[in-house]
Write a structure and sequence with these properties.
Blueprint lengths: L3 E8 L4 H6 L3 E6 L3 E8 L2 H13 L4 E6 L22
Antiparallel strand pairs: 1-3, 1-4, 2-3
Length: 88
C-alpha cells in the first residue's frame, strides 16, 4: 500500500489537544458525539501507527474507510512517505 487517504470515524468529541496528537488528520465533529478524521497515511505501517495512537488514547473506532481520492502531488515528498521501492 502506498500513500492513501482515509476517513476514520471515532466515538466521542476529541479535544483540540487530542486532535493535534493524531498527526496528519483534519478533524470535524458530528451530531451524536462522533468525530470524523480525514488524512493521508504514507503506507500500511503509518495507518497502523494511527490505530495504535487511537488505542493508546482509549478512543473507540466506529469506522475506517479508504477514500478514492487521488494521491496529492506532494505525497511522495512528505516525511515518512513510502517511495514504493523494494526493501534492500
Amino acid at each position: 500500500m502506498g500513500p492513501q487517504r482515509f476517513e476514520i470515524v471515532v466515538r466521542g468529541r476529541l479535544s483540540p489537544t487530542l486532535t493535534a496528537s493524531i498527526d496528519g488528520f483534519e478533524c470535524s465533529h458530528f451530531e451524536g458525539g462522533m468525530t470524523h478524521l480525514v488524512g493521508w497515511v504514507p503506507d500500511q505501517a503509518g495507518l497502523h501507527g494511527t490505530f495504535d495512537a487511537l488505542r493508546d488514547l482509549n478512543i473507540e473506532l466506529v469506522s475506517v474507510n479508504p477514500s478514492e481520492t487521488a494521491v496529492p502531488d506532494d505525497a511522495e515528498h512528505r516525511p515518512g512517505a513510502s517511495t514504493g521501492d523494494a526493501h534492500d
